[in-house]
Specification:
With 98 residues, the chain is of the alpha+beta class. It has one helix at 32-42; strands at 11-15, 45-52, 61-65, 77-84.
């Protein structure tokens, strides 16, 4: 299982989606829109926590729990961390590190 660190500066949102899938999709590296679509296709809910100061491209999923391929029960929620731009004044370029 991919461990998701806690970040006190994070912002959380939850979107409820239909429950028809049976396996957790691999969302790592997808942008948020792609991750939402994959979660909907899998029939699960997605809980998004935005994390500031990550070295990943902005708007991409950098961690998830449960791990991809895990068998899931109906009404499960996939927790994902999505990278946000650093505070202004810090230099970071979207797509760096891919």
């Amino acid at each position: 299982m991919t461990e998701i660190p806690r970040d006190t500066s994070a912002i959380s949102t939850t979107r409820t989606l239909p429950t028809t899938g049976s396996v957790v999709p691999d969302l790592i590296g997808l942008d948020l829109a792609e991750a939402l679509a994959a979660a909907a296709w899998a029939g699960t809910r997605l809980n998004v926590t935005r994390v500031v100061r990550t070295r990943q491209p902005w708007g991409c999923v950098v961690a998830q729990s449960p791990s991809p391929g895990t068998r899931m029960q109906q009404l499960w929620c996939i927790h994902v961390l999505v990278s946000d731009p650093p505070p202004s004044g810090e230099i970071h370029h979207p797509g760096a590190g891919r």
